[in-house]
Amino acid sequence: xxxxxxxxxxxxxxGHKFVLNTSTWPSTIQCPYCQEEMxxxxxPRVKEAWGTASDLNMDFARYHADRxxxxxSVDLIAEQVHFPHE
Length: 86
Ligand SMILES: [Zn+2]
What we know:
Number of strands: 2
Number of domains: 1
Order of helices and strands: EEH
Helix content: 25-40%
Strand content: 5-15%
Bound molecules: zinc ion
Strand order of the largest sheet: 1-2
Number of helices: 1
Largest sheet: 2 strands, antiparallel
Distance between the termini: 46 Å
C-alpha cells in the first residue's frame, strides 16, 4: 500500500468539491460541476502547495518506516469562520 497526497478543490461558484489528478497536472483547472475556471496564474501556486504537502507526507511515512517515528500526515483545509469584528 502506498500513500499519495491529493488536492481537493472547493468551487466557490457552486459549492461542489472535486479532486485533481496530480499525476497529469492539467493546464487548466475547471470545476466539473459548473465549468467555472481557475485563473491561470493560480495553477502553479496550487501545484507548489501540493508539492510541499506531498513531500512532507512522504517524509513522515519514511521516518515512520526508518526511525519508527509516529506517522503524521498533513491535509490543507480551508474553513469558513466568522470573526467577532465582522
Ligand atoms: Zn463549480
